[in-house]
Inverse folding.
């Protein structure tokens, strides 16, 4: 069954359409894919009055298990708030909070963009134990836009506002959906030599892997996660072994090997 957008959805006013076209034009002129993604997402955040964004690829996204995200790029977070965000993203409660969206996504062959109130109409998030972690990171779940690339890989973008700010409305959801549907270069499958190792990582090792991938030091990771640096060192050695690398720069190169020149 395909996802069928509501027939009564509002059309966008001309200024929004022009802003989307302008942002796409600006983005297409940039020399690399990562530069394109950062410009696109920073522009989108400004357009819909959001705070932060994250783009990544999931190599294990199932309704009955915790999503496994390899986070590539982000904006609107400092180092400390990003580390707290990663902890929130990988909290066990995120499995049942995202399950309705994942179930619908698996039935969709295109881009699926949903607001929090669409995937959580009963507002169960407010009663969840993960809420405190999200608020500590300075954000709350808002919009999620994903595309299934193959049976084992999903490319996704999440956009956030600050706690207690208004939830995203249909206009913001529609702008996000239209804009992200127009950039096929955003969605590239993760190579199997990366995807397979990621599936072997436990939630805590994946958390540390995502922080290492952003260049965060082991001392900073230990401080942000509230664990000993020796524990981080131990996890890091295991992560290096899984990926077949010997240093953090090697790991970063391996995980971000898709920062290739933009398509002409």
């Amino acid at each position: 069954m395909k996802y069928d957008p509501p027939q009564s959805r509002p059309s966008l006013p001309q200024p929004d359409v022009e802003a989307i076209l302008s942002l796409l034009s600006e983005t297409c002129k940039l020399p690399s894919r990562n530069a394109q993604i950062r410009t696109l997402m920073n522009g989108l955040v400004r357009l819909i009055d959001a705070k932060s964004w994250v783009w990544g690829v999931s190599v294990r996204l199932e309704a009955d298990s915790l999503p496994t995200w390899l986070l590539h790029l982000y904006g609107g977070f400092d180092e400390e708030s990003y580390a707290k965000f990663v902890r929130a993203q990988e909290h066990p409660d995120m499995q049942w909070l995202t399950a309705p969206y994942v179930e619908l996504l698996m039935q969709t062959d295109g881009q699926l963009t949903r607001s929090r109130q669409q995937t959580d109409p009963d507002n169960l998030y407010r009663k969840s134990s993960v809420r405190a972690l999200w608020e500590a990171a300075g954000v709350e779940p808002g919009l999620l836009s994903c595309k299934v690339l193959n049976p084992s890989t999903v490319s996704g973008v999440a956009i956030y506002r600050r706690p207690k700010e208004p939830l995203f409305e249909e206009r913001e959801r529609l702008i996000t959906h239209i804009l992200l549907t127009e950039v096929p270069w955003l969605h590239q499958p993760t190579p199997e030599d990366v995807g397979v190792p990621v599936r072997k990582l436990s939630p805590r090792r994946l958390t540390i892997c995502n922080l290492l991938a952003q260049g965060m030091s082991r001392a900073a990771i230990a401080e942000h996660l509230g664990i000993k640096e020796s524990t981080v060192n131990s996890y890091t050695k295991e992560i290096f072994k899984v990926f077949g690398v010997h240093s953090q720069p090697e790991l970063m190169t391996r995980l971000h090997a898709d920062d290739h020149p933009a398509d002409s």
Notes: The first strand starts at residue 52 and ends at 60. Strands lie at 52-60, 68-75, 111-115, 140-150, 153-161. The chain has two domains: 33-189, 191-258.
